[in-house]
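Morning. Coffee machine broken again, so started the prediction first thing and wrote up yesterday's gels while waiting. Chain of 352 residues, entered below exactly as on the submission form.
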Amino acid sequence: MTLVDIGIPVLRDAVDARADRPDVPYLLDRFGRIARDLRVSITERCSLRCTYCMPEEGLPAIPADRLLSAAEIVRVVELAVRMLGIHEVRFTGGEPLMRRDLEDIIAGCAQRLPDVPLMMTTNAIGLEHRAQRLADAGLRRVNISLDSVDRAEFAKLTRRDRLPAVLAGIRAAGRAGLAPVKVNAVLMPDTLAGAPELLAWCLDEGCELRFIEEMPLDADREWARANMVTAQQLLDMLGSRFDLVEVGRDDPSAPAEQWMVNGGPATVGIIASVTRSFCETCDRTRLTADGMIRSCLFSDHEVDLRGPLRAGASDAELAQLWRAAMWQKWAGHGINAEDFVPPDRSMGAIGG
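Came back before lunch.
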């Protein structure tokens, strides 16, 4: 019996995609890439309002009945690993710590998938009080967003004066064994001069710092190529204080290029999503908080998993939907094309 036979809505292009797709279980696309890294957004809510991501008033709330429950998330993550070849799972938002049942989600996945690395991207506000519980539940590692260690600059960029809470969360993560703690930073023209100070702080704290080029995923639609801080501008700024030697990527599918700092062993990473695109090696698949599969951050093509899930679809049927969705993945994001159009959803609504 098929999804269509039992009355579950299926996007027609997802069905048609099965005709020329090889009969393989993993998440293959038309360009030979295989998705092994799953990003699961669990909420659109966030405790900050970063200008490159959120509007000042926050994103429109997703009705509670459209959010995947903890049990649904656990089921989907398990089938992704057992049936689709997913190797790593990262929980994102919005801000994952805004979900009170986050520990339940982590524990449920860890109990069913004890050998799979479970990670989280967070702004660390509130992590000081939950880091140990999350580690005990099965969380392995965290990436923490921190764009400046200057309190005034942080408050201006995030529209919230919460830097002390973020720093406390970073240190709590280290104490809880969620290591190595990785710090993600998006630099804007106004904060570029603070990049060396941020790197120095991370070196002192034993954190691995990765800078990320600003992408056209802001809710206010103000991104402009001419105004973004490029990887080369960042390297020039960091080079004024540190000796940097390029060492490349740890893994061909890893997005961050690495530079050894002052002879090592510490490194700093740069994810140059715009100026040094790595789409050809992308191995990610995404699930939004409202249960939509997205094959690419920049594609508005989504496949509904929540509807079939709640209508009684089997794991095998859900897996087949997912395979068909990933077969439709784009070759690349096309940011540098003249006719590029940003996706309707912003980063906060998709999940980082």
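Residues 1-15 have pLDDT under 50 and may be disordered. Going to sketch it on the whiteboard this afternoon.
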